[in-house]
What we know:
Structural class: mainly alpha
Number of helices: 18
Radius of gyration: 23 Å
Distance between the termini: 33 Å
Helix content: over 70%
Order of helices and strands: HHHHHHHHHHHHHHHHHH
Amino acid sequence: MTDRTTRLEKEREKNMTTTSNKRSTIVTLLLAGAFIAILNQTLMITAIPPIMEEMGISANTGQWLTTVFMLVNGIMIPVSAFLLERFTTRQLFITAMSVFAFGTLVAGLAPNFPFLLLGRVIQSAGAGVMLPLMQTVFLMIFPVNKRGAAMGLIGLVISFAPAIGPALSGWITSHYSWRLLFFIILPIAIIDIVVAIFAMKNVTEVSRPRVDILSIILSSLGFGSLLYGFTSAGNNGWFASLTLISLGVGVLALVLFISRQLRLEHPMLEFRVFKYPIFPLAVMVGMIVFMGLIGVETIIPLYMQNMREFSAFEAGLALLPGALITGFMSPVTGRIFDKVGARWLAIIGLTIITGSSFAFSNLNTSTSFSFITIMYSIRMFGLSMVMMPIATAGLNQLPQRLIPHGAAMDNTMRQIAASVGTAILVTVMTTSASNAENRPEINHPDIYGANMAFIVVSLLSLLGLLLSFFIKNTKPEAEQNQQGDNG
């Protein structure tokens, strides 16, 4: 009996070690894949001018290299919940990374702009699946009491990757060809695929739901048109015919999509996740924070480059310490979350974000590089306390079967928030600057416009702070039910 017990204990220890090793491999693969996928969202920002010169295109046309990536990303994220139920973790990861790698190759070798744009579309089709896949897998393979630390690693990728994009592309394009941006990414993607073929294991539950073509069409049309409408609003104004038509089509398609999902027995995207009270609150706070993150990352380079004549590299460099701080702090705040929950982290973090946002609302012609860098770093320190803890708090409340849908919903809402936020802030900035031209007491209307945009960011952050007081530290639904049954 003693020998049998000892044997069983040894087998259990061996299984635990194997599981831990498998988990480490899966985590490394997903983090590497998601990092290069998210990095590509901002990698083109400072590379657009040399591409415009080489390919003879306008700034508006060149801007599509960034816009189209966000659009296709926004279309793919809602579909990811369905794909996660339809295919195994291994199949989905290898396919998504292969599509991304192929798009990277097409873009790197592109002889003209249409091919370069096609490469970006293919890239983002693969990249759009990566973040929901990573969040879902992490929530599946880590126990509830370790999810904060795991999601902190995701926070590191989400905040660090987009922030180093402009600085990296600014440095490379000023010294080498813009094509090198793609050929740096390609080997990393290929190595990730090769390792995944041998090491990636299946984690998610495959239920093989029926493909509902109409849902996919309505989702793509709805989210795609909405995102394009908000982008158009930032570039052309809210009352431009293109903006109004895009937003109208998007809203109509989304209404039809949502009503269809609520009728289907196995919906493509489950909107019933909003029945769990903390989840919608966490999504709203996450949207506000992400709106501010992307908005500020848009305004600061515009202010530095267009209004103060800093170089693109210097503008990217000003954002880098903030990214490093967030990268360092995200795993730390994840561990704190596991001990104390999201509520106080969110309250303290949003207080810091609000205060530092107000500090940015008084920019002028003598605001130093050091001030911008330090205040942005403080803001990112606050953001690291909110971004992933609040997402984890919302997803933790969902039962296991709804986690893929919750992750897809959370990421979709953040993508929309980024588009809405950028459009609103750019509109506030340009409108305020235009109105200020008729006021003789304002010497620099463009900087005044940037300050007005930062006031809007500050007020949104304050709203997020007020909402964070209603966040409660709850246990997952499945765990509550289990405890009720045991009791």
